[in-house]
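Researcher: For the annotation table, I need structure tokens for Extracellular xylan exo-alpha-(1->2)-glucuronosidase. Please keep the output clean. Sequence:
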Amino acid sequence: MKKLLLIVLLLSVTYVYAEDGSRLWLRFSSNGNAQVTSNIKGATVDIAIRELRKQWIGAGIKLNLTRTKEVNTLGSDGYIINGNRQTGISISSCSETGLLYGAYYLLRWQQTGLGDEINVSESPRYNLRILNHWDNLDRTVERGYAGQSLWEWDNLPSAISPRYEAYARANASIGINGTVLNNVNASPKILSIDNLEKVKILADIFRPYGIKTYLSVNFSSPTELGGLSTSDPLNKDVHLWWKSKVKDIYKLIPDFGGFLVKANSEGLPGPQDFGRTHADGANMLADVLKPYKGIVMWRAFVYNPNDEDRAKQAYQEFVPLDGQFRDNVIIQVKNGPVDFQPREPFSPLFGALKRTSIMPEFQITQEYLGFSNHTAYLATMWKECLDSDTYQQGKGSTVARVTDGSIYPQKYTAIAGVANIGTDVNWCGHHLAQANWYAFGRLAWNHELTAEDIINEWITLTFGASESKANIQNLNPILSKLMLESREAVVTYMMPLGLHHIFAFGHHYGPEPWCDIPGARQDWMPKYYHKADVNGIGFDRSSKGSNAVSQYHSPLSEELDDPATCSDNIILWFHHLSWDYKMKSGRALWNELCYTYDSGVKQARFLQKLWDEVEPYIDAERFREVQSKFKIQTRDAVWWKDGCLLYFQEFSKQPIPYNIERSIHELDKMKSFQMRISNHEKADINQLYNK
Ligand code: GCW
């Protein structure tokens, strides 16, 4: 009996200290001993007090949380913190949420060890910082690689998973203040009363953490759910149906955030089915939400299988509607004009819509960046987009500034990230992918932070608590180098020189530049994008081709139009170049392509080596799990290089330079190989390589 007890005890100790990644970056000490007081009471400030009491180290130190109108200028989420670690610190804000954000700032500050004096004043760049979950009611997650959906629809509203609150806390700690619970490919059923009662429970849990709940809606809901004969936005009954639905929602969730809508895109219904415009559709919903201060996030991800270059279509569709949207409509625009490729130029809609609110949409889940197998720290990619100059109102009109209200007045400013979260114990399917959730929140709060600032902070918070200071000092430079170079490595072996969308049809994991499905939509086929032929490769979007360059403002349009000035890392996005075209390096294009793929493989190996270097400085569990992911990533990089080079060689008809690595695969075998990965599964690597 004693033995058994001992075993149970040992097991529970191991369990408590197992580094399974479930605690994310929230590893503050739990020996708090400060005195925390506040001049107000409330559910949100109570969380701030609880967090600080539990985690702020400083016996006898007073921490004071004050709600005061004096800091109104910082907006409702902003705060001021000042004081001294030794003598006492005060946080002031005009709202409870501001106090909660201040508390998390303080805990981060304690953890990252920045000295004794504190004197900061913070307010977010975007008012609405929102996660989009592509979660379905059956708990599958579209493009999700971290298990099932967190939302247990079958058990709600009665059974409540402790993960709901943990999720809210993690988001609040990085300033995320909104969540769209369900997939933009929305089932009308989400709006049934039964489901809304479940949504209410989640909203109630998220509310004290400052998080508003939103839903994606299907534009045909009046027909599909309500039984009406039409969903025409200008039809009176349709309007009344939405009005009463919205009333029901606000009865249950008085601070409901609003709707996200994917309409007339990839087969989903929308106002154009009734001869109406996107503005007609969005405004009808905006009008019914307005009395409750709800908003509509209307996606600009639209393209049709016609002769027009897919990359141009969203701009063509939305620019003529500029100025026609209500002030509670925000057009949600993916960072690039095609679809979350590892590198895209920014969408030309940024800055071009001058009288319409617009918000960036980033993809945190790695649909086109190796799922949860590859390491790709995405803050570098998002910064590339946010810092891009649109020139729309002169030099310095960056994507960040044309969306955050600095240049154009917007009633609401917002930013969205497609979540990479699921039921996996470590939340994201890969320990290092947690950094992307973290980075999205931090950039949404302050897009001026650098990718490097954010990763250093994340490393200290995520690996710091369980390790000694000395370890963190050793770990930080290696891991931060790895993370900062990781996305470029993925770009280099997946889409060198701007080659894009050559992913395998269906799952978007591996390469399939040869893919040809008779009768399939051409703009879903890799050949539509790479256009390889005996003369050369690349999509001609110059003024001699589709002229997509003309959608960018001068001088960028001219820069992109000329291959001599267009950056090499995106050159085949904008140009079809001959195989012997002389690149800026002096090499012919074919050789450059070979060298670039090869350097992608080398970069993947380098990341793998860097990871092995961190072994002495982190726990064995996370080390091993990530190490095995790097094996997969490196094998995949070789697969990309071999598959693409051997295939494109059929067109270039030139040898692969001898000083790059020999291929280890046969093209015919690669071509006949069908990767059987469904959207909802992780890539099964045995399927990939053992065939
Ligand atoms: O990239 C495509 C994805 C779809 C997704 C769509 C979108 C939710 O492959 O799975 O659907 O984008 O953003 O609407």
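Researcher: And a one-line annotation?
Model: The longest strand covers residues 62-67.
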